[in-house]
Write a structure and sequence with these properties.
This protein is of the alpha+beta class. It contains 14 helices and 6 strands. The radius of gyration is 37 Å and the shape is elongated.
Length: 409
């Protein structure tokens, strides 16, 4: 069986409660002025923002909170409060100004202490029993928690709005950066940066670097948390494939920081380029991600395009490489698939090593005599073409492309 908690305040006769509330309400205007004066003395840096009637919002908030708390006493201090919304505005203002809530909470605590001092004097004047006043004090500090919660809500709203605005400015900056001319034009600054781009960067609080690299990402899941990149990295999470613009990508430690920030993501970062060539870096990063989606480049990490140059050069132009492959490897059409593959692997090993049968055999893991037999067949299939440097170069290109696609070992 649960025993009901006895309320000392509820045992105070109603006429005393009404008397207490009436005296307190009479003193609210003067008490609010006194509290604001003490707050200004303790925190002179606190701004006084006027409302639409020219009255300080802080004074309005103090007065409203006192009136609300005192008026609430007749219903009992344990009833839930609906706090004045002006305290959300206080929290929102701190957030928009980039300040923390520490000072604001300290101000609230000071205000409650000053208010309680006066309420305690009124309680003595109307003979409110001490246990009831202790209970009222507890209710006052619970009320303070509610005011703080309102300010935190406003602060969070401001922070979310600012974050959204910052991301919006970053996306607009990135779009302009990707369409910026790669050569100096009229209207550009001395460093060649278009004035509109410089202005947009300043609005986003982004210092224009000399060189950048652009990354393209693949979401591990639709609800994936955005990578925790450094503040100077531009991030666009609205695109189907999120994009990043990384300033000074060759700075010490930058690569490791990006790898940690994008852990669990797949993607690629393009080569470092001058600022106005960002679109070129984006193009290579996008091409690498295309290959990742096709399973031709590894997933699960942020790839460096400069470490996969061969794949990026040979694999994206499929039509051109495919046509060249059909023409240059046509002699293999007369061989069966398995034997044709063995001859192609032998030819590629010979082209890459430029060695004799022992070197090619060591590379393929077969007997040198087997290599000599295959090389004689290759000479018969291609004839004098195999001695032409241009043909050998094209053969190596198409064979390397087949190996990158997993068609050769």
């Amino acid at each position: 069986m649960v025993t009901a908690v006895r309320s000392a305040w509820r045992e105070v006769p109603p006429y005393q409660v009404r008397q207490f509330a009436a005296r307190a309400l009479e003193e609210v205007p003067a008490l609010a002025q006194d509290i604001l004066r003490e707050i200004r003395r303790a925190y002179p840096q606190l701004p006084l923002v006027p409302d639409e009637f020219g009255e300080p919002r802080a004074l309005v908030g103090i007065r409203q909170s006192l009136e609300h708390f005192v008026a609430h006493l007749t219903a009992g201090p344990d009833r839930p409060h609906v706090h004045p919304r002006v305290f959300q505005e206080f929290g929102r203002g701190e957030g928009l100004q980039g300040r923390s809530l520490d000072v604001l909470q300290a101000v609230y605590r000071l205000g409650v202490r000053l208010a309680w001092r006066r309420l305690a004097e009124i309680g003595q004047q109307v003979a409110i029993p001490a246990p009831a006043m202790y209970e009222l004090a507890e209710s006052g500090y619970e009320y303070l928690d509610g005011l703080v919660a309102e300010s935190v809500r406003g602060y969070a709203e401001a922070a979310a709005r600012q974050a959204g605005e910052r991301l919006r400015l970053q996306r607009r900056l990135m779009e302009q950066l990707f369409t910026a001319p790669g050569r100096r034009r009229r209207g550009a600054a001395a460093d060649g940066v278009p004035a509109a781009l410089a202005e947009r960067a300043a609005g986003a609080g982004w210092a224009l670097p000399e060189r950048v690299a652009v990354a393209v990402l693949l979401r591990p899941a639709r609800e994936a948390v955005a990578p925790a990149v450094a503040p100077d990295v531009l991030l666009d999470m609205e695109s189907e494939r999120p994009r990043m613009v990384v300033p000074d990508p060759d700075a010490p430690g930058r690569r490791d920081l990006l790898a940690r920030a994008t852990a669990g993501w797949s993607g690629a970062i393009g080569p470092a380029v001058p600022l106005l060539d960002a679109a070129k870096s984006l193009r290579w990063a996008g091409a690498a991600v295309d290959l990742t989606e096709r399973g031709l480049l590894p997933a699960g990490e942020l790839l460096q395009c400069t470490e996969h140059t061969e794949a990026l050069v040979l694999l994206p132009p499929e039509e051109l490489i495919g046509d060249l492959t059909r023409r240059r490897l046509a002699p293999l059409d007369s061989c069966g698939p398995a034997h044709g593959r063995r001859l192609a692997e032998t030819l590629l090993a010979w082209l890459e090593t430029r060695g004799g049968a022992p070197e090619v055999a060591a590379r393929l893991g077969v007997h040198p005599q087997t290599v000599r037999y295959r090389l004689r067949q290759i000479r018969e299939l291609w004839g004098t073409e195999i001695d032409d440097p241009d043909r050998r170069f094209e053969l190596e290109l198409v064979l390397r492309a087949r190996r990158l696609r997993g068609e050769l070992s």
